[in-house]
């Protein structure tokens, strides 16, 4: 799969995993991300290895991240999306979403899914909606898995 790097002003977005700052990603996700507090670094590393990742950078500094779990044919799950707090309000999350949603290898999928507790309005701008029939969805969720 072809790597993507795109630039806007002093910022860039890249799918090149060799550029990812795993320590920075782990710091944010394990300390500030309500959805995976206390996640071990090894779990982050494994998730990165098995996902399509989008890093957001100012020069070489990692300032944002998102990953897509997908079969590149029928379904994708969007997760671990963030922009560091001090970089918010600059349109970077919108640019990140545009980049992900327009990524060549993610076109023509039957379904995209994500979980969010606070960014509904961001995702709605890109066509996301609430689950039409939540009675069809099930989950197995261990909220304390990273505390064990």
Automatic annotation (TrEMBL):
- A Pfam family per the record: Acetyltransf_7
List the Gene3D superfamilies hit by this protein, alphabetically. 3.40.630.30
InterPro entries reported in the protein's UniProt record: Acetyltransferase_Butenolide (IPR053144), Acyl_CoA_acyltransferase (IPR016181), GNAT_dom (IPR000182)
Q: Which residues form the N-acetyltransferase domain?
A: 15-148
Under CDD domains, the record lists: NAT_SF (cd04301)
Protein name stated in the entry: GNAT family N-acetyltransferase
